[in-house]
Amino acid sequence: MTQAAVGRRAQERLRERTILRAALEELALSDYGGMTVEGVAARAGVNKTTVYRKWQTKAELMRAALSSVFETYRVGPTAGDLRSDLLRIARIVLDFSRSFEGQCLTRLRLLQHPEPELAKIAHDLNAKQLAQLSALVKAARARGELGPDVDIVLLVDMIWGAVHARVVMKNEPVDDALLHRIVDMLMKAARPAATSGTGPKRKPARPR
Q: How far apart are CA 63 and CA 122, in angstroms?
């Protein structure tokens, strides 16, 4: 590939990222029913034909925009141990909560959105995330790190809740030390009983 072709490809990728970001902005400002491809093009500073050339419908455009967010904040694959995986997820949650994408999307409640088209996209992406979590669970259980009855989705929800409450609701600082504390507390609940010190207790010795 020539240097000129490389430069053109880089410009195309930049333009694509600009359009996808503009789509998220329009979604946040106008919601799905009010947003238009023309509005996205105007916000991105491109002609609407540039958008339609890549994405034929508003649904295709939003699927691409939300998929780009999913890829940026994907939870898998496993790092090789559960604690590292949960720490990575906690950092992803923190980055998302602070990000432009997080600020745009959190309030829209995409999985319960009244527009079926948008809700379908959100459910498809959520299914991919759940598949990644399932792979983490399988690997953690194979290593003996996770009890058989632990709900990993609830575990991740607890990370989301703790971080989101600090960042969004309380506007309090969150550093890596706090993420370690959150994860370590959850790890105690996630460990199998035989390794967490919650197994059967010995009977006290009879006094002599």
A: 8
